[in-house]
């Protein structure tokens, strides 16, 4: 009897492996950990008799997706895709459902330390849960009233508009969400070599087909052209004279420079930059049409040249006050303060333009964390620096003044104050209270921000692109 049961178990396991199809969900070993989180099989391939499964860990960001063999699969708890949703071959599984579940789960769990990652706006919904609903509503109304005059009607319609924006990321902007087809869901490049760095890509990028099945792509770190082998790249480097990004160097302080590149004048560079960036940015599709964009590439200088660290792109004209379209610090340079520096620079440009601005949505999980932290630090820095007007007076500052001083858009200022839980209602007015803890945390965080943007090192005059007949 006992033997039979064991036999049965074995046969069930074998059956499961062979009956696994795309769309199945089951526990899968997460490399480098002892965990077996739930994962979905996105694709199956057979290489020289071995089956490989491309899996997406349901509660994790897509950058952890990978090819695994059968040893990493726990076939005792397989959920098969529902029959009415198609045969589960990935391609035919209903796309809408996958988009929804994929993006939402990414968003909710990858930013575990913070609130779900999506635009500022989605804070608002979590704020509501946190009991800030009244404050939220009042502040919103106050803002609308100021903006729109005292008409109740316009208030309502304004709120309606806002909540629409909250629910659906804009599709009309410079970036469009990916069609979630099977190809773009899977990483297609194994490795890139960029200068001295070997970097494992996180996401799909539309490099030409002949580059896709190589063990590594070799990229010139100055002009960003890609080659199939190191030999090819070496030949390229002999001919390539660039030692810095094209365009104008508009900022230099110590070893940090920024170059401004016009997506129309330097199309090939801009396209190659977008391709490279796509390897590390999810849910943003690049436009091959780079004409409407400017690219700000940050470099560090050494005796060999100006090496790219990160960049952001910006629409020449944004009807929605976006001051950043895509933003990325390349992985070897992450967690060193460069992300904040890029963000700080983008607001510095907005200050020169005399405008407030905000990054285009949706932000990546990591992007959102950086922005939240940048906003908090920038606003706290200002709150701690203002002096009271008279003796025994409390310092006074309006939200509009914070916006003017920082070029941070009003919505982002308000959501930051709320996230930090700084706003209190006291004797008929809103006051900002800074606790000792907040202040201590702030000073500690600022100790880590050793590199800052120095506005005196920026040599730049904003262009009015609207006045030009053609970019
Ligand atoms: Zn080159």
Task: Give an overview in words.
The chain has 471 residues and is an alpha+beta fold. It has helices at 2-19, 95-110, 120-148, 152-167, 182-185, 209-212, 230-239, 267-278, 338-353, 365-385, 399-406, 410-419, 436-447; strands at residues 25-27, 38-47, 50-57, 66-68, 192-194, 197-199, 217-219, 226-227, 248-253, 256-262, 293-302, 305-315, 322-324, 327-329, 358-359, 423-426, 429-432. Helix 3 packs across helix 12 (410-419). The longest helix has 29 residues, at 120-148. The radius of gyration is 25 Å and the shape is globular. It starts with a helix and ends in a 24-residue tail after the last helix. Zinc ion binds next to loops. Zinc ion binds at residues 220, 222-223, 225, 236, 240, 242.
Quaternary organisation of the protein chains: single chain
**Envelope shape:** globular
The biggest sheet amounts to: 5 strands, antiparallel
Helix-residue proportion: 25-40%
Question: How far apart are the termini?
Answer: 80 Å
> Which stretches are low in confidence, meaning pLDDT under 50 for 5 or more residues running?
1-12, 86-179
Q: How confident overall, as mean pLDDT? A: 80
The gyration radius over C-alpha positions equals 25 Å
Structural class of the helix and strand makeup?
Answer: alpha+beta
**SSE succession:** HEEEEHHHHEEHEEHEEHEEEEHEHHHEEH
Output the strand order for the largest sheet: 9-10-11-12-14
Helix count? 13
List the bound ligands. zinc ion
């Amino acid at each position: 009897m006992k033997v039979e049961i064991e036999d049965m178990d074995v046969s069930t396991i074998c059956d499961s492996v062979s009956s696994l199809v795309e769309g199945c969900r089951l526990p899968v070993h997460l490399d480098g950990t002892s965990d077996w989180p739930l994962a979905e099989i996105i694709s199956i391939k057979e290489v020289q008799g071995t089956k490989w499964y491309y899996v997406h860990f349901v509660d994790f960001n897509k950058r952890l997706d990978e090819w695994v063999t059968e040893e990493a699969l726990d076939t005792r708890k397989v959920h098969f895709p529902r029959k009415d949703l198609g045969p589960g071959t990935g391609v035919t599984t209903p796309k809408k459902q996958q988009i929804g579940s994929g993006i939402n789960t990414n968003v909710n769990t990858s930013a575990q330390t913070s609130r779900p990652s999506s635009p500022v706006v989605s804070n608002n919904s979590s704020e509501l849960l946190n009991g800030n609903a009244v404050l939220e509503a009042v502040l919103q109304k106050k803002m609308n009233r100021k903006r729109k005059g005292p008409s109740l009607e316009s208030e309502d319609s304004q709120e309606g508009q806002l909540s629409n924006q909250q629910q659906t990321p804009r599709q009309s902007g410079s970036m469009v969400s990916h069609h979630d087809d099977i190809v773009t869901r899977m990483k297609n490049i194994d490795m890139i070599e960029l200068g001295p760095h070997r970097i494992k890509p996180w996401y799909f990028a539309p490099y030409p087909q002949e580059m896709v099945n190589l063990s590594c792509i070799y990229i010139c770190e100055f002009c960003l052209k890609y080659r199939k082998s190191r030999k090819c790249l070496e030949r390229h480097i002999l001919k390539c004279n660039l030692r810095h990004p094209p365009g104008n160097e508009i900022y230099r302080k110590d070893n940090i420079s920024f170059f401004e590149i016009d997506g129309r004048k330097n199309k090939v560079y801009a396209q190659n930059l977008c391709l490279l960036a796509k390897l590390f940015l999810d849910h943003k599709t690049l436009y091959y049409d780079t004409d409407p964009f400017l690219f700000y590439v940050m470099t560090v200088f050494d005796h060999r040249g100006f090496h790219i660290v990160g960049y952001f792109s910006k629409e020449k004209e944004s009807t929605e006050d976006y001051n950043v379209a895509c933003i990325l610090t390349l992985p070897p340079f992450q967690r060193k303060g460069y992300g904040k520096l890029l963000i700080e620079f983008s607001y510095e440009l907005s200050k020169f333009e005399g405008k407030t601005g905000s990054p285009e949505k949706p932000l990546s999980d990591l992007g959102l964390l950086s922005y939240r932290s940048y906003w908090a630090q920038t606003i706290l820095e200002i709150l701690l620096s203002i002096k009271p007007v008279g003796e025994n007076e409390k310092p006074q500052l309006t939200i509009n003044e914070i916006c003017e001083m920082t070029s941070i858009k009003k919505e982002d200022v308000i959501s930051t104050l709320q996230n930090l839980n700084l706003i209190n209602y006291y004797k008929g007015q809103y006051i900002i209270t800074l606790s000792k803890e907040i202040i201590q945390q702030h000073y500690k965080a600022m100790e880590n921000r050793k590199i800052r943007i120095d506005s005196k090192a920026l040599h730049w005059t904003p262009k009015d692109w609207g006045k030009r007949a053609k970019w």
